[in-house]
Automatic annotation (TrEMBL):
Membrane-spanning ranges: none
Domain Glucosamine/galactosamine-6-phosphate isomerase: 7-217
Part of the whole protein covered: 24 to 267 of 661
Species classification: Bacteria, Pseudomonadati, Planctomycetota, Planctomycetia, Pirellulales
Protein name as catalogued: Glucosamine-6-phosphate deaminase
Gene that this polypeptide is encoded by: nagB
Length: 244
């Protein structure tokens, strides 16, 4: 789906999410959202906040699972994805904090493996992710699935690519301060979502978007695995679609 501007693209995705939330609420069933961080989805979240405030969209029955978190990372740190999600979405809606799930960057290393398995299990117990929102990194990553992440990969600790750490450098006031690792849902985890929206905006994403959508399906570009998903939609602005 190519939109003229990122704003209309974001409103489209927010509308799809809102429709699902309302449907599930009417049925009395929980709605499970997979959420992403980064600059790309912020307008989607702003639109969801607007729908909550102005149209009474309730998140009371919504469960969320974020894709990833830096490791190590304390929730109150400036760059933490917990903080990002609170500031951009959760602080402004009526979601139950108990229904919010974000990989835990505070755990001692020996507990991470069990945490990742429990994270996966919780998604399964809730019936799976209904809508997964994704951005795409310059390395072709979805979540933090860096080059080399296979189709079957699950939630796990990963070493961040140099390019990813460079892109995060300004957030951390220098590349040296960017964590070397992160916890991320796997490609396999992401592909199990019933509906996927991969968002990309701006000319800086055009090259990797073309590789992901029109290039070979390969672990070198984790987003390319979305080609094998029946309900994956790339939601782009014209600039990001420029090389298609
Ligand atoms: C980070 C996140 C990804 C995100 C990517 C792109 O690496 N972990 O989930 O897709 O950044 O970020 P941006 O949307 O700011 O371009």
């Amino acid at each position: 789906c190519v939109f003229k501007h990122a704003k209309s693209a974001s409103e489209y995705v927010a509308a799809q999410i809102a429709e699902l939330i309302r449907e599930r609420a009417a049925e009395g069933r929980p709605c499970v959202l997979g959420l992403a961080t980064g600059s790309t989805p912020t307008t989607v979240y702003a639109e969801l906040v607007r729908l909550h405030r102005e149209e009474g969209l309730s998140f009371a029955g919504v469960h969320t699972f974020n894709l990833d978190e830096y490791y190590p990372m304390q929730p109150n740190e400036l760059q933490s994805y917990v903080r990002f999600m609170n500031e951009n979405l959760f602080d402004h809606i009526d979601i139950d904090q108990a229904n919010v799930n974000i990989p835990d960057g505070t755990l001692p290393e020996e507990e991470v493996l069990a945490h990742c398995a429990a994270y996966e299990q919780k998604i399964v117990d809730l019936g799976g992710v209904d809508i997964q929102v994704l951005g795409i990194g310059r390395t072709g990553h979805i979540g933090f699935n860096e080059p080399g992440s296979g189709r079957e990969s699950r939630t796990r600790m990963i070493t961040l690519d140099k390019k990813t750490r460079q892109d995060a450098a300004s957030d951390f006031f220098g590349e040296d301060y960017v964590p070397r690792r992160a916890i991320t849902m796997g490609v396999g985890t992401i592909l199990e979502a019933r509906q996927v929206y991969m968002l990309a905006f701006g000319e800086g994403k055009a090259k990797v978007v073309a590789e992901a959508i029109e290039g070979p399906v390969t672990p070198i570009v984790a987003a390319s695995f979305l080609q094998e998903h029946d309900n994956a939609v790339a939601v782009l602005d014209e600039a990001a679609a420029d090389r298609l």
